Amino acid sequence: MCGIVAAVTQRNITNFLVEGIKKLEYRGYDSSGLAIIDYKNNIIRIRCVGKVNELIKKVYKKKILGNIGMAHTRWATHGKVSKANTHPHISSNIIVVHNGIIENSSILRLFLQKKGYIFYSDTDTEVIAHLLHWEQNKKKDPLKKTIQNSIEKLYGNYSMVVIDKNNPSRLIAVRSRSPLVIGLGLEENFIASDQIALLNITKRFIYLEEGDIAVVTRKRIDIFNKNSTITKRKEIISNTEYKSVKKGKYRHFMEKEIYEQPESIRKTLENRLKNNSKIYFSELGLKENNLFYHAEHIQIVACGTSYNAAMVSRYWFESLANIPCDVEIASEFSSRKLALRKKSLLITLSQSGETADTLSALRCSKNLGYLGNLTICNMESSSLVKESDCCILTKAGLEIGVASTKSFTTQLTVLLMLIAKIINVKKEKNNISNKIIQTLNILPTRIEEILKKNELIKNLANKISHKKNILFLGRGDTYPIAIEGALKLKEISYIHAEAYPAGELKHGPLALIDQNIPIIIIAPKNSLLNKIKKNIKEISLRGGITYVFSDQEFDYEENMNVIKMPYVEELIAPIFYIIPLQLLAYYVALSKGRDIDQPRHLAKSVTVE
Ligand code: F6R
Questions:
Q1: Per the residue annotation, which of 23, 144, 395, 604 is the catalytic one?
Q2: Nearest 5°: phi and psi at 549?
Q3: Architecture of domain 3-245
Q4: How many Å lie between the centroid of ligand 1 and the Cα of residue 604?
Q5: FRET label pair with 291: which of 139, 210, 242, 365, CA 20 to 30 Å apart?
Q6: Signal sequence span per UniProt (predicted)?
Q7: Do the domains spanning 3-245 and 454-591 agree at the CATH topology level?
Q8: Is residue 2 annotated as part of the catalytic site, yes or no?
Q9: Rounded CA gap, 514 and 120, in Å?
């Protein structure tokens, strides 16, 4: 994980580095640091444990003047959270920041220790710094050649930026299965893990590709591919708006992103519902239609919230399009021997497109004989998009809060559109695809209605925020919504929450029921409602306290509380019912004073397996 920014500029670099690294805090926020070569050619390094704001306070206490430097925000993988383990790491004249994991770092560490290197940290990054220094001194090669020699010895997925104090006019960047983007300025250039760090200074970007090494000075960028041949990479102009990364009137990004959902769904639908009867994805062509036509099975792989969205879609693929669908957690998918289904289409689902487990699952799948692969992703320039046969973008806009909200609902929107598209392509059941399209058109308005119910949800949050355990129940396509509701609550409030299919209670979890464990139940009007009502009765009879989210009337049961929801069409009920659960998690976390946008131990983009 971790975030990197680096620059070689014509003006003083300090502000740029701290502002840039602040924007990458979503990639990890255990500790952060920066190193600048000042005008007297000294390396000034400042590091501290905690959020980037701690670093900023320290940096502004000193007056540092320099034109080349790098900064890093860390999510610990090698070595605990401590100042000594915080990047940048230095070996004499070599300064390094790095994202990812060097798998053979213990062997290299022993080797370098035997050569006399002293380690001040437990990190694999310090191993890189010493290795570069050792290689450079052994052969007296230029730094780029030294880096080429050294990376042959490094195993793992990583990206890094290196500065040599003895030649302080250039940055060298390496991409090895972990993204890096170069931002182009006027007689100054920048490097970052994500363009978001650079959007306020440039819109012009070059994405490095696998195995690329870039030598970046103020006036030049030379990129060498994995065969060490000088190569040209395409320059792109980003149309991402810088303002979309500000909180505006909201207290937290998560709150803003919850309220943005009607808009992000509208954007996701825009120009894709043709004449209200056909789905059109400009990203896809005839080749993909052919892929959909032949698909007889869908295999989805994803992690976390994206996995929960995939779980909802499994119900839809099978009930609406009659296509068998399996969903698997990405890390499990790539770690077991699979029996391939006939004519199976692999779909990866990801907000960031950089989730290492999902990327690894995609890479594993390529030799297995799938019909083809499609990624549904929010980040157009991500590795997952680049490495997939085709992609559909979710268009949620930038999501900064670590807890995914609008990416989940836009993923579900795309998945429903995809199902309608597949039905169209297979020329089957057009009435169903028409119904999907009509209902999707109503979805943003329905979500606006539910967002107005926030006072109701705040009251419930006050009632349950002191609890230690909370159960979530759903049935059918709202069971994955119960899982997602529980995930939201636990990740930002740190309350233990678990989800079950309501019918499964009597097979064990009923033993947990007492007055201390609130039970949240999602019970929209559908064919399973009567069964859910029976489950509620079973809980009430045993003294359990239920909070039922529903648009229906219920006979009174003891300790039952109904949170009355507005009407929603059955088809889109799963998308609609996650909204109150997102709000519930948000208000519970707010009342507990949690760090909502950056919950402890987490990071938004999980770029390590
Ligand atoms: C939870 C959350 C994570 C992500 C997961 C996958 O709120 O955000 O569970 O959903 O890490 O990330 P993406 O979708 O970027 O692959």
A1: 604
A2: -90, 115
A3: 4-Layer Sandwich (3.60)
A4: 7
A5: 210
A6: none
A7: no
A8: yes
A9: 52
